[in-house]
Amino acid sequence: MRLADVIEATAEAGLVLQRSDGSFPAGHNGPYDDAETPLRNTAHWIVTVLKAYELNGNASFREAARRAGNILLAPDARPSGATFLCRTNPAKDSANGLIGQAWVMEALVELHRVLGDDRAREVAAQVFLLHPFSPVGGLWRRVDVDGSLLTVDPTFNHQLWFAAAGALLDPTGDTEIGDRAGRFLDGALAQTFAVRRTGRIRHEAVQPWLARARGLLVGLKYPRTRLKQRRAQDAREVGYHAFNLYAFAILHRWRPEHPLWRSRRFLRALRFVARGGLAGALSNPFGGPYNPVGFEAALAIETFQPLLSVRLGSPVEWIERQLEHTFDASSNLMNRNTPDPQTLAARFYELTRLRATDMFIEL
Fold this sequence. Notes:
Layout: H1 3-17, H2 39-56, H3 59-73, H4 97-115, H5 118-130, E1 133-134, E2 139-143, E3 149-152, H6 156-169, H7 176-192, H8 208-221, H9 223-254, H10 264-274, H11 293-304, H12 315-326, E4 327-328, E5 333-334, H13 341-346
Antiparallel strand pairs: 1-2, 2-3, 4-5
Helix pairs in contact: 1-2, 2-3, 2-4, 3-4, 4-5, 4-6, 5-6, 6-7, 6-9, 8-9, 9-11, 11-12
């Protein structure tokens, strides 16, 4: 079965899930168990159905994407005219940091690119520029749904994906959006992108070396607590490693000549994959059941294999491993072996970014 056929079949299954108002079912943010609004999964499904529309021209996909886009652009999506309302956990910000905004902007970019929806891009650009950016550190602050300014988002993958959304918004890099995304890459090369000795990408974006020092101090005073924290962090970083590489792949397509791609740290992060660092990631709670590691690794290999003399692996094999673990061929939805089937099914969209849609996939 061609990859294009898998995408079209899943898009067809997605149309059945779409509600009368145009939205798609919400999940609960995988292992974090945060109650989410429909915006996040609706955004993911928009990307999938638009890819199917590009592949076969079926007008039902175009109409489904248009109706779903209306949900993202409705006043309720930004009740205060600031950021998108992505989750409803009272203990956390309602925007889901930078990552919640990046996911919605990703879909708005596709609505503009494929359907020519200028308003979608205008709203995405407005929300992007709402977030204060520090050119010194190359990082963004969070903005809550009511417009209040929060701290710098401390999670590296959030910062990275927000930069990737900026690259998608400004493909030529001629505006302030592209300038900020480029400055993020410069900052990542200088300091904010950190890897462990194994090459595994560290989870922190803000002062990663200070975070490491604090962890050592906790370990000296509370060794058992530190061991438990370290094991949890190890699992999280393995589960997110390919997710980070996927966003890096988006940025590489945008700035293929940036020196970051030849830096020692980035090449070590790639070698983490070559050396089997993602073994077990498909069953890791932060990996295959939530972040579709197989799709993410496939895009990373497609993009970055030319940078290394060692083999990173086969994109087809990684895709097949993800599908074997989580795809239900009877429903054509990626909703098996996961505590959050609605979100994982929506995250099938990550597969649509691979260029070789004529590759043969065994289901």
